[in-house]
Amino acid sequence: MLGKGPSYLLSDVLHLPEPSARFLLALYGAYLFSFIYRYYVSRHGAAVQNLYWTMSGVLMVVYIYGWGVWHMLLDTVAVYCTLRLIGGTLLSVVITWLITMGHLVGGYLHIMYSNEIHPIAWTIPHCVMVLKMIGLAYSLYDGRKKQETLVSEDIRKNAVHSVPSFLEVMGFSFFPGSVLAGPQVSTNKFNPQPELFTPSWTGVSIG
User: Fold this and answer.
1) Quick one: which of 76, 22, 29 has its CA closest to 54?
2) Burial class of residue 142 (count of CB atoms within 10 Å of its CB; 0-12, 13-18, 19+)
3) Whole-model pTM over 0.90
4) Which residue in 35, 95, 111, 197 has the fewest CB atoms around it within 10 Å?
5) Bridge-partner residues for 162, per DSSP?
6) Per-residue pLDDT of the chain (207 residues; tens, 9 = 90+)
7) Would you name any one GO CC term (predicted)?
């Protein structure tokens, strides 16, 4: 057992496939990142907090999937650019859906027809990211409507009225508490008290 990493040791102890043990270790790693955030990072400003969430989530994904992290990075950047240009429009929702779902379905098909099928694939965190990005696009779309036209209180609470900054979108996408297996949360639930914990959603006004 000498020379083996912690995921191999855990795999031997729990009789799990090594990728599953690695995934489990990364999930528990989120607690460590949350502890560091609570006691050291939360006192800093918006940019530092979102940069910390981004780096933490990227590290977790890289630990499991290696260069597979590029799938999430590519889609997050593409969605940010879309929202920056036309955020709050129905077209932005459609384009976000096509970018993220198209990439995810392509990944499923590639895995299905390849000879390297494994239950722990990059499509797991990518699926969570897809839900987040589509939800953000819809929240911006709702935020552009008049409040009285929104059909429920939940939609009104989740509406986002301005395009987030690049670091805010990255921090939301790679938040370590949900980056690997969810849950998917709305942007406003991710950031319930901006004055205390994380920065408010600032950026290009679409109201």
Assistant:
1) 76
2) buried
3) no
4) 35
5) 205
6) 444 777 778 777 777 787 888 888 888 888 899 899 888 888 888 888 889 999 999 999 999 888 889 999 999 999 999 999 998 889 999 999 999 999 999 998 888 887 765 678 889 999 999 999 999 998 888 887 666 565 666 667 777 878 888 999 999 999 988 898 877 777 766 664 444 334 444 333 333
7) endoplasmic reticulum
